[in-house]
Records
---
Amino acid sequence: MATETVDIATLLGVLRERHPLVHNITNYVVMNSTANTLLALGASPIMAHAIEEVEELVDITGALVLNIGTLSKPWIDAMFHAGKHALIKRIPVVLDPVGAGATRFRTQTARELIQHVRPAILRGNASEILALGPEGAGGARGVDAQHGVALARQTAVTLARTFNMTVSVTGPEDYVTDGRREARIRNGHPLMARVTGTGCAVTAVTGAFAAVEPDAFRAAVASLVMYGMAGEWAAQRAQYPGSYAVALLDGLSALMPDDVRKGAKVEFSAAE
Amino acid sequence: MATETVDIATLLGVLRERHPLVHNITNYVVMNSTANTLLALGASPIMAHAIEEVEELVDITGALVLNIGTLSKPWIDAMFHAGKHALIKRIPVVLDPVGAGATRFRTQTARELIQHVRPAILRGNASEILALGPEGAGGARGVDAQHGVALARQTAVTLARTFNMTVSVTGPEDYVTDGRREARIRNGHPLMARVTGTGCAVTAVTGAFAAVEPDAFRAAVASLVMYGMAGEWAAQRAQYPGSYAVALLDGLSALMPDDVRKGAKVEFSAAE
Amino acid sequence: MATETVDIATLLGVLRERHPLVHNITNYVVMNSTANTLLALGASPIMAHAIEEVEELVDITGALVLNIGTLSKPWIDAMFHAGKHALIKRIPVVLDPVGAGATRFRTQTARELIQHVRPAILRGNASEILALGPEGAGGARGVDAQHGVALARQTAVTLARTFNMTVSVTGPEDYVTDGRREARIRNGHPLMARVTGTGCAVTAVTGAFAAVEPDAFRAAVASLVMYGMAGEWAAQRAQYPGSYAVALLDGLSALMPDDVRKGAKVEFSAAE
């Protein structure tokens, strides 16, 4: 495992060359900021949720991002519809279980999406991941992380092995595992938690990398490094949340492959 | 009444220590900016509207904000559902009757919400408040204020007494009454009217203060001072609407309890 | 035709004096940025989509903007409802067929809206316009323009003549025709394509100008010049997408009638 490595710089270069389409069925709060995140990074966003068209859009997309942030029945239908089609067409799906643990509705929907859509990557904070584990009755307080990333790791490994997926747990220190390999990422900045939708944004970024990197584990790691470094870049230019949100988008565009090669703070190991 | 006073500085300190959850059922236009407003201020936003989960969320929230800006039937159902549950659980509700007076649908919905949900605080512009008064056939032109705040004051007092709530009327000069006390607030800046959702944002800020201050009148006054001062802070840093919107968020975060203590422009009196 | 000219400076002055109401039934992604675009320009936005109220709102609006970006059944119903009412009341309708060509659902909806609502102006990119032409099976890749503006011109002229409307085709060079006159506009900047919703924004701006200028062709040309110049203004102040989006809004507010008179890059001719 000591030889595991992710060539983030090359991946970023490929992403910016291919401008992969990323289809998002996501929440109302972050639709605009997510689309701008993908554009700033170099990808091409599609946001669409109508049952009538999601399959056709999945057919042309490089990745499908499902985000349950402002859930309601018709949107859940669209997510299953699009997700099952993506599974058949082997399009990677990234699931963001926003607020899992906060209500039974969210926990249940996230569990069913994992079961039936089989996402390549599950990206949540520690509370959300804990709520989705076998033991998981852990009540999330809104969408904030209450439990340390450390506590969520065992759950992440279990989920990864049970569903043969990559689990990406974000927090002060990020953690990624596919049940076999694991990575700890220490890029990022505390101000990111003061801007709405940064979690959802890194999920969309994960979709963009998954569209160009078939190894889901590597795509997830690259995304966390990239977004975390944009957060660091922004912190050097802004100190308050409004201008920080603007600088975060700028950073996604300003960072060059060489920058991420030099600035990545990743540590790999084998999952126990 | 000369002794009435609101210790805004202390309230702001408490708010930033407790990070109260504020549950918003609000319009599509301002979901992102409202969430960012609450985060910048120091509160924690939840945006959710599904019938299936609003009660569970009300159970964990410090305040519920209802905003009828982009109304439709399922959202009205969710507002009544969440609102009635909040009433039972004694969670303060803040209602923003966006565009009341502009269409019968909005006026009617706002009236029914007041009647059945019994909000602690109603926050609108002069046109909207006038449209909700007993005489109120006053047609609002969109969501702009056509009538001076002065004209809306009598209606505010009547509404406050009839429904035992606080009414918060914003405009060039803001006015708050609970039917017994009244306050005039002269913080703010004309550029606030050039950014969409500033009215909705101050309603959400009112929810955040209501979560930490049980006296609804005081919570409403503190909110108008705080948001108005953020508007003043922003006007010193930006002169056009795009960068002004960014600076407004920055100001909510940058202002310290001591700043609001010094900058508050409030005048209290007894309602006639 | 050599004498055709649009007095954009005067139109902008009139717009800023009248603050025309523009009613938008638009997509979730751009609701906030569209409202801010209209406010920065000097117009007054209304966003509302409920069947119960769209007719009442059309009655007080200066223009109706329909945008199919995040389509679903209830929104289509609202668009037809509002659009047919606008047709009867002679309120100009501007249609943005976002993603036409990408799915049958979008292409079909856009075609039916053109047929039954008879928009004064159709504003799309080259792919979208091509997809709506008589021959149009041209598959759009998401909402990006794949085909050059040149290729879409013949389709634009055909559509303009068939439906007696103005067609506004945006891209590196913009093109407007009413089937008789045509204009080429070379204002704008490549960074505009890195911000989500700039196409939707220029459609809303077109609505604002259509509210004050009865000649749809002239309103469309003025809008493209104005928005393109805001893009140029922004490019002098920001180099990355996040801050560029902010500067774009600033530019809409900062540009004065004299600036657009001097900076307009328009060339008129007769359509063949």
---
Amino acid sequence: MIKTYLGCYPCFLRQALDAARLAGASDEQQKTILDRVLEMLTQIALSSTPPEIGDRVHRIVRQEVGHRDPYREAKETSTRQALALYPRLRKCVQEADDPLDVAVRLSIAGNIIDLGPHQQYDLWDVIERVLTQPFAIDDRTAFREALGMADRVLYLADNAGETVFDRLLIEVLQVPVVYTVKGGPVLNDATREDALAAGLDQVAQVVETRSDAPGTILDRCSDEFWRLYNEVGVIVAKGQANYETLSHVGPKVFFLLQVKCPVIARDAGAGVGSFVLKQG
Amino acid sequence: MIKTYLGCYPCFLRQALDAARLAGASDEQQKTILDRVLEMLTQIALSSTPPEIGDRVHRIVRQEVGHRDPYREAKETSTRQALALYPRLRKCVQEADDPLDVAVRLSIAGNIIDLGPHQQYDLWDVIERVLTQPFAIDDRTAFREALGMADRVLYLADNAGETVFDRLLIEVLQVPVVYTVKGGPVLNDATREDALAAGLDQVAQVVETRSDAPGTILDRCSDEFWRLYNEVGVIVAKGQANYETLSHVGPKVFFLLQVKCPVIARDAGAGVGSFVLKQG
């Protein structure tokens, strides 16, 4: 697990403000939210993971704005935009010499759809880069071997929209996949509703973790999730928050992500902006 | 005057951390500093200018680290680097068709030397850009006219190192200049020591404002400064902090700066990264 660094604090404030504004908070509400986040930050244990703090930040935003899912519209837009690309991307995978490799790369490209660390991105630019750029950490061979021996894959979703890119990867896996999503809205993380909108139920069994915190905080997840987590041979964990909460898990987990901040960059040993497929 | 926006809060935390680290603060000291800044931010009036909050941030850092001038070494390096460029830049001014124009541009280029908003920059890149790029706000004609009628100029310094670029501008002004610096160390702002190291005493009368807050907070300045401020016909105010604290002052003040953050960009009506010569 990644602990929270002091360098994360400015980012928590920025995320609180971004989320508050996206949720249509008034100036007074934004001030109240920021004051509550400042107060909360004086009391946190630095042993907490960043997603645990992020969970508290976004809970404060939802409470003050009185909106259960401030990112609903943004998530729907992301899914719609990704679905519009889907036929073209699927053709790209099908026509590839190595469909698994291209699908892995696209799944990581999809990880740019993240309204947490950075709110602006050019998706096509990322797709083109990820199709050619070398991986900063490249455990693709181990991933391929692990998949060859697994009878089931647990796939931990990250953001809405990114789900469509996950679907492309799942379509080329030769094993049954359980696709887990959040138990409730947090940030732009995918919920069951978002997974269904992206058509994940057509390629996987969609299961909720029961937790509505960013990443995967194991002791907040359901018994069903725990059972799956223990039973499966391979876990695919998407995005930074899953890395932050599960980096201590052993070699059966494979992290697919873009490095988006210096804290993760330092821990993973890969530069900001780089693409990573890292075995736990 | 510019009030503090909620969007400034993440930047205050980042500045506190940057300053703490530059001052060699231990992990425990950094945590104490950040907790004190968080606490302070819950209590500020949003009508305060960002430099007033910045003043409190940097005061906390200096208190906790027990270091009167954490930026001393960084400032000396900036001055040394700028002085190394000085002969070449001076030639550039002297050989120009319009020396005042080139000197004004270089003085703004020097404003990139600022460890507040951003810690990384490529000085030569900025110099080349500023020599050719159009101004986002261009009151150069009014500036030229005001200089033609003034019998004295009050020049409000910003950062150490930038001082050398100010010197280039002062050398082409046809009027006596009083160059005012901070009364004590704050951030990398120029003090008397920094001005002398850059040779400003050879081209101007160097005077302390008596204040050690960023920008120019008038009611903290000395009587001597007040007298000058009222008497002179033209005031040249360098950098964002002076703009933030003096933007309400009338047409005798001319702001020379690079826009470094969205708050100033919105207020001045010029994009982040743009060059501005704006009459008050």
